[in-house]
Amino acid sequence: MNTTASAVLLTAPAAVPLVVAGAYALPRRRPRPSAAPLAADVIEARRQQSAQGNVLVAEAPARERAPQRHPLDWAGLLSPVVILVCGSLLAADVVDHGPTASYSGLLRADALTAWMLLVVGAVALIACGFAPAYLAVERSARRATEQTVWRYHVLVQAFLAAMCLAVVTANLGVLWVAVEATTIVTAFLVGHRRTRNSVEAAWKYVVICSAGIALAFLGTVLIYYAARQAGIAEAWALDWPTLVARADRLDPAVTRLGITLVVLGFGAKAGLVPLHAWLPDAHGQAPAPVSALMSGVLLSVAFAAILRYRVIADAALGAGFTRALLAGIALLTLALAAGLLLAQRDYKRMLAYSSMEHMSLIALATAIGSPLALTAALLHIAGHGLAKSVAFCASGRIQQITGTTKIGRVRGLLARAPAPAGAFGLAVAALLAFPPFSLFASELGIARAGFAAGAGPAWATAATLLLVLVAFAALAARTARMLLGAGTGAPADSSSSFTVWPLLLGLAACAALGVGTGPLTDVLDAAAQAIGGR
Amino acid sequence: MSGSLYTQLLDLACGGFLLAAVIVLWRRELASIIRVFALQGVALAAIAVLLGAHEGRGDLVGVGLGVGILRAGLLPYLMRRALTVIDADRRRYSVAVTETRETQPLVNVAASLLTAALLTLLAYAAARPLTELHATPATRALPVGLAVVLIGFFVLVTRRRALAQVVGFLLLDNGITATALLATSGVPLIVELGVSFDVLLAVLVLQILTTRVREAFGTTDIDDLRELHD
């Protein structure tokens, strides 16, 4: 691929959401001549979404006391589509020709980048495809005004841009800036409803995540210091490929301190102990599509940073250090999540704790570090992203129908609202790692890799399986209680304002990944190789 | 600038930097805490300018001036504005609660100061490998940055007023910037810009959230935020 094409492919995933965010921000202000290109962009986006709009009409039959249509809500789908297209083109390219870089190495795509872009794009497609119906109900229930909906769109698009920047950059400093930017942008999405609960959740979220991620910056500074002392020039001392290539020359003591801080800091964003306390609150209070994005991809984008640093750490310190650190953190997180799942009374928080459970599985797989384990971890990132985003979207609809997030007040949902309840049930089944969903394959892979990796990892894996069983029981019992039984209320009219296709698409993709990775096999293998699974 | 004068000035600036963090622990009036925080920003800028002058790097002096404007000017201004809003409200409704004072920190002042001493010792112990790697006057002062990071964390955990927590977060951030400056004469410019921008936005977000917390809970006492728990 020539340099211009790769520069465009690397820039577009972050730039297009930013442009869409700008376009959403503009129309409310006075239209100026200079705004013309952006306005044209919106019109273009509107034209592009009309095909999707037809699908919606086809699935939502004519008997609608339908809330008024808001076609601009669909313009948000432009960004996920662009991210997916760029991700697939980059994936095809890096498999054939190896990593590409542009802007003198600032943006760089290897197989891990392509894989993460695909996951971000797919989850964003689910969340942005579900959002218009969700927002329509919020509008008609007077929980959202035109202004808050515009702000919602601007923030979600900026959020996507920040995540994509975090994925495509090769500079560890810019990576940190992008991850911290996601915190700032999502703060207002968490506090969207301005109730006591959501303000409290937003406060905790910003304080804990910002302080946690500040630690990651301190760690980044220490790595930079070690790199400078190892004779790497200032311009390249935060460049990931350079650091990996010359990691053996980094001072071990300084690197150890730096890596510990980095793992704790980015671990805060990834929902790992000790700085995990924000996660259930934020995921429970954010609007459903935002919860889907935060849980489905933000956690794994932050974890991808840990994956990058692990390569440096293993080359500089040997595999033992990060293995012990990550395995310890994974087990503690899992024990905490399983324990709190047992006592859970709120289904959105239940899903949040299930995210912590799955992130700890990914952390454990990273700790094991064999090629099989890393491949399974990457597959788990994708499967968890798809299944969890479907579960959160469906839970948002359930909350709109029942008016509560308490598990105890929801009964017989399958009889009342078959579509959202069915999607929720299938998504939870995927999260419980039932075949054919891909989480079955990845958890099996993690377990096999764990038992093959020697005594220490085998014990950790055994303990993990036991804790996963506890989480399984808690999640299954609560979901069954919500879904099954005789319906209490009148059957809810679910078809008029519920978009099923994004959720079905997500579940189908998750199941397809479980049956076989198909054309993605090459990029998955290459990604596992790029993060050290040689 | 002669070597010994440079070392003395650098140590003076670092000493002032650490002292400001300790005084933040000592004071309870939020207005004076913000004033001390601004002074710490000046000390931080002085460290950057000294390093830049010593190494003859104009860009570092520029970074120092930028850091000074942000940490000693803009951020204290934003916090003072938030404080004025709270204060004006208090006068209007003549509420008895003192929102502008840290009335009951979780740890009292004497214990806080003792903890600060312990944290400084801890920072010196933890920074040993950093200093040994490349011993210069600047890296020998590096534990000061780490000590301020730890003190910032301590403030963040033990203070109950929303604004006092914001100050804790900013102390943490000042400490990290100082560490970066002392260890490596600062991170590359693009990262420095991004970090400063992020910090500024984070403070703006926290300021807006402070207002919302007060609207929703009627106080900025973070201890009252206990509706979400398991």
TrEMBL record, chain A:
Keyword Oxidoreductase: yes
Keywords: Cell membrane, Membrane, Oxidoreductase, Transmembrane, Transmembrane helix
Transmembrane segments annotated in the record for this chain: 6-26, 72-92, 112-137, 203-227, 288-309, 321-341, 361-382, 419-438, 458-477, 498-516
UniProt-listed Pfam families: Proton_antipo_M
Compartments reported by the entry: Cell membrane; Membrane
InterPro entries: ComplexI-like_HydComp (IPR052175), NADH_UbQ_OxRdtase (IPR003918), ND/Mrp_TM (IPR001750)
Superkingdom of origin organism: Bacteria
Primary localization class, coarse: membrane
Domain NADH:quinone oxidoreductase/Mrp antiporter transmembrane: 171-461
Membrane topology according to the record: Multi-pass membrane protein
The protein's name: Hydrogenase
Organism: Streptomyces spinosisporus
Automatic annotation (TrEMBL), chain B:
Main location as per UniProt: membrane
Cellular location(s): Cell membrane
Membrane topology label: Multi-pass membrane protein
Keyword line: Cell membrane, Membrane, Transmembrane, Transmembrane helix
Keyword Cell membrane tagged: yes
Chain segments annotated as transmembrane: 6-26, 33-54, 60-78, 106-126, 138-156, 163-183, 189-209
Domain of life: Bacteria
Designated name of the protein: Hydrogenase-4 component E
Organism: Streptomyces spinosisporus
